Amino acid sequence: MRSKKSQTFSFETNRDYQGVYFLKIDAAGHSSIVARNTTDIVERFFDAFESSVRAEVDEARKLNGCMYSQFWGWAGDGGLCVIYDAQEESRALKTAIESACNILTRKLAPLRETLKKLNANGDFKIRAAVHKGTMRYTDFDRQGSIHSKDLNFVAHLEVATPYDTVTISRDIFEQCPIEIQRRFYELPFEFESRKTFAFSERPARDVTMDWVTKIPISDSKAISFLSRRYSESEKSQIISGANFEVVDLGTALSTCSHYLVSGKRPSYYRNAVISVLERGIRYVCLVLNPDSDVAKQYAEQRNEADLLTKTVGSIENLSHFSARVDNPLFEVWLYSALPHFAAIAIDRKQNGLLIYAPYLPNLGPKDIARADTPHMLLRNSAIEPFSAQADSYIDYLLADKATVRAI
To answer: What are phi and psi for residue 226, nearest 5 degrees?
Structure first.
């Protein structure tokens, strides 16, 4: 039977320590809960979360007879716990692993029940990561500023961890007794040059799929991705950063044209476009020519009977806006090539940005509005050679003899 041991250890100033275990834990649903509930509910719930986590770690430390476990910071939605045993490292290992897993298996459901009893809105999920390594201890008042590559790694690993999951590095997995190893499974791809293992009560398939879509694979880069289009306010802020040119390439441009003539207040996008034009920046609209044979074929392929009508209405809206601003830098071009993609290109020849949305035809039983397709915000230099191809495509449309300037 394991003994319930009290804390008996303190770190010495300006000394290096090896075999230190770091447990990083975070409430993945913190922001949504904060945004959707009163301050009183938020404080009561996350106080309960912190108390539950601290109690579970302390209980694991006592049961394993570990010398030391302390949280070196708690930021409302989670914290970093340092676990160490100067005599027997396995005690620290078991304390770290068992407390992390037990938080998921013992505390997660009761905490969700607490959230429900508070009549709170939002989803509560937990991410936890465990790693071991070295650190140099400075002093008690500077615990939060201690630097260590292993501390950095566990912080990064926690962010990449799928929700309701514990991840551990191979450094830890290989030291775990067999009964703990059996609870974990290897995740695909290395994370920051280290193999990683996961424990979760969620299906391994779901955890693995979440993992591979969150971590960088090979030379992959992080992007801004939305499952919907960017809002009027978001889009207006993005184009406001232009210094040379904005090109809005689409099929009907019904959303853009509506923003520009809508009487609603505040009119974020119209004001942003006017500001861009007043700063001497060219704003180009590329719209599919509704009178072209390609437009008719495209409408049939996409199963959009009203596409041509919408396009005509958009051109009228763009004409009304052009008449109001009376600025030659506002251009509307009608192209007759097959639409391959929709995008807003900001400073495309100066390593700017691309808001990109792929479209699929509505051939199934459920029609999907274009606004509901995935939208991505990309830096040109991060997506070469695709950005160069997009730039060339825009140049081709503008130079095509079949393209005509409407405004």
So the answer is: -125, 145
Which of 159, 149, 153 lies closest to 128, judged by CA? 159
User: Can you list the residues of the chain whose pLDDT is less than 70?
Assistant: 1-6, 8, 139-147, 360-371
CA distance 259 to 233: 10
Residue type, 206: D
Q: What percent of the chain has pLDDT over 70?
A: 93
Give the list of residues 6+ apart from residue 327 with CB closer than 8 angstroms, or none. 277, 278
Helix (H) or strand (E) holding 58: helix 39-64
Q: What type of residue sits at position 335?
A: Y
Nearest to 252 by CA among 297, 307, 303, 296: 307
15-27 and 78-84 beta bridge pairing? antiparallel
- What span, in angstroms and rounded, lies between the C-alpha atoms of 313 and 303? 19
Q: Which long-range contacts (CB under 8 A, 24 or more apart) does 34-40 make?
A: 35/122, 36/120, 36/121, 36/122, 37/118, 37/120, 37/121, 37/122
Confidence (pTM):
0.77
Give the pLDDT confidence score for residue 146 in this predicted structure: 66
**Euclidean distance between CA atoms 353 and 376, whole angstroms:** 10
Residue 316, token pair as written in the block:
């009228």
Q: From CA 251, how far away is CA 367, in angstroms rounded? A: 17
Greatest C-alpha distance within the chain: 85
Question: 282 CB contacts (<8 Å, ≥6 apart)?
Answer: 244, 245, 246, 329, 331
Backbone angles phi, psi at 14, to 5 degrees: 60, 40
| 60 CB-contact burial (10 Å; exposed 0-12 / middle 13-18 / buried 19+) | buried
Sign of the torsion angle spanned by Cα atoms 199, 200, 201, 203:
negative
Please state, in angstroms and rounded to a whole number, the distance separating the CA atoms of residues 128 and 132.
Answer: 14
Q: Residues, the chain, total? A: 407
Alpha-carbon distance 79 to 52, whole Å? 13
Q: What is the pLDDT of residue 256?
A: 93
The crossing angle, in degrees rounded to 10, of helices 39-64 and 89-102 is 140
**Distance of alpha carbon 90 from alpha carbon 202, whole angstroms:** 27
Residue 52, classified by CB atoms within 10 Å of its CB into exposed (0-12), middle (13-18) or buried (19+), is middle
Question: Could you tell me the two tokens for 7?
Answer: 């804390």
Instruction: State residue 135's pLDDT score.
Output: 87
